[in-house]
Automatic annotation (TrEMBL):
This is General stress protein. InterPro entries: BrxC (IPR022551). It comes from the Bacteria. The lineage of its organism: Bacteria, Pseudomonadati, Bacteroidota, Flavobacteriia, Flavobacteriales.
Length: 126
């Protein structure tokens, strides 16, 4: 892995993804996630794999999750660079301006909380 890949996110990022994430890679995945929100709270983490700030916030959020003894939501991960149209659909459907990184908490098909950048933490999940 090159120096720039370590800083900005490279090919290894996918293999390092934590097991608690469910990926959103299609509109069908998004629809299934929203459907899941009717039986329990979900959270979608929108991440730009080329942004140092987004990568740092993702790492910090994952560390918080790993150090927590409870998980209050099913966690979904969206790679913004690979799936920008899905991100746009999320912004339109929930009326939330797109930001990166961004965490959107959904319950019963409605966005109940959202945070971006340094405001993202596991406290948003409860």
């Amino acid at each position: 892995m090159s120096f720039f890949d370590k800083i900005f996110g490279g090919k290894e990022e996918q293999s390092q993804q934590k097991s608690f994430w469910k990926k959103i890679q299609s509109e069908e995945d998004l629809a299934a996630a929203i459907e899941q929100s009717h039986t329990g709270r979900i959270a979608i983490f929108k991440h730009s794999t080329s942004c140092f700030i987004s990568k740092t916030v993702l790492r910090n959020f994952e560390k918080e999750l790993e150090n927590s003894d409870q998980q209050a939501a099913d966690l979904y991960y969206l790679d913004l660079l690979a799936h920008r149209p899905i991100s746009n659909k999320i912004a339109e459907e929930f009326g939330i301006r797109h930001e990166s990184p961004q965490l959107i908490v959904i319950e019963n098909g409605k966005a109940v909380k959202n945070a971006s950048h340094q405001d993202i933490s596991i406290s948003q999940l409860v």
